[in-house]
């Protein structure tokens, strides 16, 4: 079916997993207006992204916080790289992040390469460092045999629920922020969800350069015989979203406390209040429950592109049965 001249290339759709949050469908879902299978070539899709980004795609992202593009003719890592480029956002280098990941093509990386049986808890991308992406893309190149969803949840809604349930905790969190501590080896450890070594964390093998790059992040380094302990913070755990004019639960508190565990790291020591005092385990557990209760998990389909506003949405990863290949790209 040919599209009418001047009409949109994109059409909103509904999925059973979506939920209405304050009257807005989350996430927003766009499919080809010609109906499945995707009409036209990859070049037409990329041209439509360029022409409708400001008028259609970005307003939808601002409103919903996340947009799932489904049924479009981007099926390979190279296609995804071109699609990210078509959006026109500046790339953000992955400096200071914890996840083991490798470059695939252009500005496209693997998502967290930790083993499939491991869940990755909810977090804002790179919330533990001051320079973090404003937007991130995920792309499903190979859909999982089972599981492996990337659940998402609206950050301001998590803040609202936490503040209602634990006002004193949230007040202390807003006053002191958080300190994140992580012990890194030299090389990457793919068996760990936080196994990125210091060579790839700071994109160098030179300790002096690593010190310099850590200092720019406001991170302190304590060198050990076979690696380095990084101390980040105090850093705010609640931020103000100036665009949407609301407070957001912008941290990796639950992820660090429950998931920063490997041969080098004890998760309970991985994150504390900014004054150094320990976090209450019962509140962390309840926060984890709220994140799960409020999240949306759409099963991946090959070719799916999920655009997330990192100011609005936390994400996670469920365990899965291989094969699964989800790629990512970070943008300023």
Automatic annotation (TrEMBL):
GO terms for molecular function: oxidoreductase activity. It comes from the Eukaryota. Residues 49-327 form the TauD/TfdA-like domain. InterPro entries: AlphaKG_dependent_hydroxylases, TauD-like_sf, TauD/TfdA-like. Keywords: Oxidoreductase. This is TauD/TfdA-like domain-containing protein. The lineage of its organism: Eukaryota, Viridiplantae, Streptophyta, Embryophyta, Tracheophyta. It holds the Pfam family TauD. PANTHER family: GAMMA-BUTYROBETAINE HYDROXYLASE-RELATED, TAUD_TFDA-LIKE DOMAIN-CONTAINING PROTEIN.
């Amino acid at each position: 079916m040919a599209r009418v001249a001047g009409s949109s290339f994109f059409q909103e759709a509904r999925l059973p997993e979506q939920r209405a949050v304050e009257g807005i469908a989350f996430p927003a879902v766009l499919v080809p207006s010609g109906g499945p299978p995707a009409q036209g070539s990859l070049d037409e899709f990329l041209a439509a992204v360029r022409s409708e980004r400001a008028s259609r795609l970005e307003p939808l992202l601002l409103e919903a916080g996340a947009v799932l593009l489904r049924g479009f003719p981007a099926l390979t890592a190279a296609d995804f790289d071109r699609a990210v480029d078509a959006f026109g956002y500046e790339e953000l280098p992955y400096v200071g992040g914890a996840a083991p990941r490798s470059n695939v093509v252009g500005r496209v990386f693997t998502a967290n390469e930790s083993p499939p049986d491991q869940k990755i808890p909810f977090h804002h991308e790179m919330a533990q460092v001051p320079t973090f992406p404003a937007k991130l893309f995920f792309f499903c190149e190979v859909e999982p045999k089972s599981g492996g969803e990337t659940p998402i949840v609206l950050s301001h809604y998590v803040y609202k629920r936490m503040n209602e349930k634990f006002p004193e905790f949230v007040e202390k969190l807003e006053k002191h922020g958080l300190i994140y501590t992580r012990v890194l080896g030299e090389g990457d450890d793919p068996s760990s969800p936080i196994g990125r070594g210091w060579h790839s964390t700071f994109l160098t093998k030179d300790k002096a350069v690593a010190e310099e790059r850590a200092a720019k992040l406001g991170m302190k380094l304590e060198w050990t015989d076979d690696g380095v302990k990084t101390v980040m913070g105090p850093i705010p755990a609640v931020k103000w979203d100036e665009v949407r004019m609301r407070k957001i639960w912008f941290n990796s508190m639950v992820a660090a406390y429950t998931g920063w565990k490997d041969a080098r790291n004890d998760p309970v020591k991985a994150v504390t209040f900014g004054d150094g005092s320990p976090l209450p385990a019962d509140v962390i557990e309840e926060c984890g429950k709220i994140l799960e209760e409020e999240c949306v998990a759409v099963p991946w389909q090959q070719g799916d592109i999920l655009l997330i506003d990192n100011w609005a949405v936390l994400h996670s990863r469920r365990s899965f049965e291989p094969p699964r290949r989800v790629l990512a790209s970070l943008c300023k």
